[in-house]
Write a structure and sequence with these properties.
CATH class of the largest domain in chain B: Alpha Beta
Shape of chain B: globular
Number of domains of chain B: 2
CATH architecture of the largest domain in chain B: 3-Layer(aba) Sandwich
Number of strands of chain A: 4
Order of helices and strands of chain B: EEEHEEHEHHHHEHEHEEHH
Oligomer: heterodimer
Radius of gyration of chain B: 18 Å
Distance between the termini of chain A: 13 Å
Largest sheet of chain B: 6 strands, mixed
Mean pLDDT of chain A: 92
Strand content of chain A: under 5%
Number of helices of chain B: 10
CATH superfamily of the largest domain in chain B: P-loop containing nucleotide triphosphate hydrolases
Largest sheet of chain A: 2 strands, antiparallel
Structural class of chain B: alpha/beta
Low-confidence stretches of chain A: none
Largest interface: A-B, 25 and 31 residues
Radius of gyration of chain A: 21 Å
Number of strands of chain B: 10
Number of helices of chain A: 13
Strand order of the largest sheet of chain B: 6-7-8-3-9-10
Shape of chain A: globular
CATH topology of the largest domain in chain B: Rossmann fold
Chain lengths: ~350, ~250
């Protein structure tokens, strides 16, 4: 028995090590001199960096859904809010280098006739403050929505619908110009972050490595959580919520804890994503994004952490490849993927790797 | 050694859409007592358990456990007062092992941070091993609860109740679907448990109630029809009429 379980443990550890070594390759190979046969393009680094952020988002969904059974169809909102927090910092960093050259106000505010910075923009000129907000704002929203829902024992599909409505409502709100977040154009034309111009190779590599580091840290934290008694309680809540109550645990507190933690992880992912892709707009709130992220987790194998990461990379690789020649097919393929996984691969890719045993 | 508080229900009425599930029900269970509750389907047995454990709020009446008003507390708080419940259909955590199921039930701080920082102490392990022995599942400790047989699941759930170390145990139809041998084993288990704590057993199986050999309460249409030793209850013409006679 110990032999088998330690073998399984080593397999998992090996898989994690393999993924992280592979993910170190793009920036390393990108640094090779131009013309070298092994050199990968800037595009590969940019795209892989984006997927790393998606993997953090997938991890956050797995924590809530795979373990605690909270199927959120609105995690894209937490991701987008984290992205907006970072975007606000990047906008403030532009300073007087905007088209209108205003020393304080971002271009869109000048264009819309703002006289001064709205109060909720204060503090975002400081990087640590913006990072804190990228975690706290999604966390606070998840705390509020979760508290209202879990306290009233709203579970299953009803919770999913509420979270989906949440992200849709936020999308509509962020589309409005008078929200002070740039309306449908969102934020773009970023210049630099922490003094490093964003269009340089070193910034790209730095952002990539920051995202990779964040993925490793969030994976380790998540692994610590799910392997604790707390994690076993999440599984217990997922499978027999009322039994957990009759054991004397405050189920609402446990769900709220994991939901807020998950939202903060999603916010972090969004904050890392925005400087990598150079733009954030209300489209990030679109309900489809949240659903797509759930498909990554389902495809990779939920309740395994590593499956969520594998799912985010493989589905996005498929998407990038397919949309390069048949973009119209993508939604159909995504839907088909979800059906196939639900019917034939309930444990996802990880289930295939581990075989049919326990 | 007797410990704990007594359970006191008085004039409890519960109505669902005009149907009176409980009608002016009154019941007292002393500390350390083992009480069997019988009655035909729909007599209100499970609703009574729901009221005691906070799942259902009564329309009127008093429900107290020691000094605590049960009608004002939720399931979590009531569980922490020391009232444990075993469901009619065994419910446990199928994805977790037998050992882990017991570990979650073990009496320990119930907070989120306590769960994050929980380390299994030697004392806790001993207590779990003790209960594993008591319910006869030592060999299955590392198996997932989902693959246990029906009888073993019933015992695991009783084991989880023991881990909670409750003062009052509510046990809903523990021997439904069990073989004769398993039934006997379960009766012996419950007799051993009672005395240290109060136990209320809801059961259909009269043989089993006879094997318990304690005071019996007969419910009918939401209220108490008769109460006393099984021999006396069996002679009661009203009981024969509504339940035993059929």
């Amino acid at each position: 028995m110990p032999g088998i379980s330690s073998l399984r443990f080593n397999l998992r550890l090996g898989l994690v090590a393999l993924i992280f070594v592979l993910l170190l390759l793009p920036p390393v190979l990108n640094a090779l001199p131009a013309g070298h046969p092994l050199r990968v393009s800037d595009f590969v680094v940019a795209v892989t960096g984006k997927w790393i952020c998606y993997a953090i988002l997938a991890l956050s969904i797995d924590l809530a859904w795979g373990y605690a059974g909270i199927l959120s169809l609105g995690h894209g909102a937490f991701f987008a809010l984290g992205g907006y927090a970072m975007g606000m910092h990047l906008m403030r960093n532009i300073g007087d280098r905007g088209v209108y050259g205003h020393p304080i106000l971002p271009d869109f505010m000048v264009f819309l006739g703002y006289k001064e910075l709205p109060w909720y923009w204060l503090g975002f000129e400081y990087f640590p403050f913006a990072m804190l907000m990228a975690l706290l704002v999604p966390g606070a929203l998840a705390g509020l929505v979760g508290w209202l829902a879990f306290r009233s024992r709203i579970t299953g599909v009803y919770l999913s619908i509420i979270t989906q409505a949440m992200t849709y409502a936020l999308m509509l709100a962020f589309f409005r110009n008078d929200m002070g977040f740039g309306g449908n154009n969102g934020f773009t034309d970023f210049k630099d972050l922490l003094g490093v111009p964003l269009n340089t190779p070193s910034a790209r590599t730095g952002l990539y490595l920051a995202a990779l580091g964040a993925l490793l840290i969030t994976l380790l934290i998540s692994a610590h959580v799910v392997q604790s008694k707390f994690g076993r309680l999440l599984v217990a809540i997922r499978d027999a919520e009322s039994r957990v109550r009759f054991l004397g645990y405050d189920v609402t507190a446990f769900k709220l804890f994991v939901f807020v933690m998950s939202a903060m992880m999603a916010g972090l992912a969004g904050a890392l994503y925005v400087p990598l892709v150079g733009i954030i707009n209300p489209g990030e709130f679109s309900p489809g994004n949240s659903i797509e992220a759930v498909v990554w987790v389902a495809f990779g194998g939920r309740g395994t952490l590593i499956g969520a990461i594998l799912g985010a990379f493989s589905v996005n690789a498929l998407k990038t490849w397919l949309t390069s020649f048949a973009p119209d097919l993508w939604l159909l393929v995504l839907g088909a993927l979800f059906i196939v996984v639900t019917l034939f691969l309930p444990r996802g890719l990880i289930g295939l790797i581990k075989g049919r045993g326990a | 050694m007797k410990k704990g508080a007594s359970l006191y229900l008085d004039g409890i009425t519960v109505t669902f859409d005009g149907f009176r599930a409980l009608n002016n029900l009154s019941l007292i269970v002393e500390p350390g007592e083992l009480r069997a509750v019988i009655g035909p389907n729909g007599a209100g047995k499970t609703t009574m358990m729901d009221v005691i454990t906070g799942k259902t709020k009564p329309d009127s009446g008093t429900a107290r456990f020691g000094d605590h008003d049960l009608t004002r507390l939720d399931e979590t708080r009531i569980a922490n007062l020391g009232i444990g419940r075993k469901f009619q259909k065994p419910t446990m955590f199928d994805a977790l092992t037998v050992f882990e199921n017991l570990e979650l039930a073990l009496k320990a701080p119930r907070g989120t941070l306590a769960a994050l920082h929980w380390r299994l102490s030697g004392e806790a392990r001993e207590r779990i091993d003790e209960v594993l022995t008591e319910i006869g599942l030592t060999e299955r400790a590392k198996d997932r609860a989902g693959i246990l047989s029906h009888g073993q699941r019933q015992w695991l759930e009783i084991g989880m109740l023991l881990m909670q170390d409750p003062e009052l145990l509510l046990v809903d139809e523990p021997v439904a679907g069990m073989t004769d041998q398993e039934t006997e084993h379960t009766a012996a288990l419950l007799r051993r448990i009672a005395g240290k704590r109060s136990v209320v057993v809801v059961e259909h199986d009269l043989e089993f109630v006879r094997a318990l050999g304690r005071k019996v309460t007969v419910l009918h249409e939401g209220s108490v029809l008769s109460e006393g030793p099984i021999e006396q209850v069996q002679e009661d013409p009203r009981v024969i009429d509504v339940y035993l006679g059929r």
